[in-house]
Write a structure and sequence with these properties.
Elements: H1 2-7, H2 11-58, H3 64-89, H4 93-103, H5 109-115, H6 118-128, E1 134-136, E2 139-142, H7 153-158, E3 162-164
Parallel strand pairs: 2-3
Antiparallel strand pairs: 1-2
Length: 179
């Protein structure tokens, strides 16, 4: 439990993650808005092409096979564009709200671990230590640890809670911190 307490992030770090995440989400939402405008323009162009094909078929300028082929192509293209518009138009505020509601939990990892059920605790340990936590000579050891939570690994070692022998290249970046 004390190891979980030492994994807790300082409030300043959580604020930084929140700020970087919010600006990242804002940029993505702005990018999505631009893509929606572009997709709507493309959709309008395809609808006009389909209308043109329908007019030609009504005027007997093309045969049924040609009409069916182009109708199928344009209908599929319109369906794909409508799907893309719908996906890009999704309100990201719900995702940010969930993140916002849970981000402060990083300041109290003891609480996160304590209120978790057995399966959640197992998943927590597997994620934090990349499934590499083992017990040897009366102390927990790991070659891998989520970088975001490893800031006090030397204190954990001093207190005889955990020996973290870094394996270079794994978990060096803080998720959502922009680093």
């Amino acid at each position: 439990m004390e190891a979980c307490e030492l994994m807790s992030l300082p409030s300043a770090r959580v604020r930084k993650i929140r700020t970087v995440t919010k600006s990242s989400l804002d940029l993505e939402m702005e990018s999505n808005r631009k893509k929606v405008i572009e997709k709507r323009t493309q959709l309008q162009e395809v609808e006009e092409k389909l209308f043109s094909v329908e007019e030609k078929w009504i005027k007997n300028e093309i045969n049924k096979d040609t009409y069916d082929r182009w109708y199928s192509i344009y209908s599929n293209e319109m369906l794909n564009l409508k799907g893309a518009i719908e996906r890009l138009s999704n309100d990201q505020s719900k995702a940010f709200s969930i993140l916002e509601d849970n981000l402060n939990l990083l300041t109290d990892m003891r609480h996160v671990y304590t209120v978790s059920d057995t399966l959640q605790k197992r998943e927590f340990v597997n994620r934090v230590f990349d499934s590499n936590l083992y017990h040897e000579n009366g102390i927990y050891r790991t070659p891998t640890m989520l970088g975001l939570l490893s800031h006090n690994h030397l204190k954990m070692k001093e207190k005889g809670l955990l020996i973290y022998e870094k394996k270079e290249g794994l978990h060096q970046e803080d998720p959502l911190s922009g680093k």
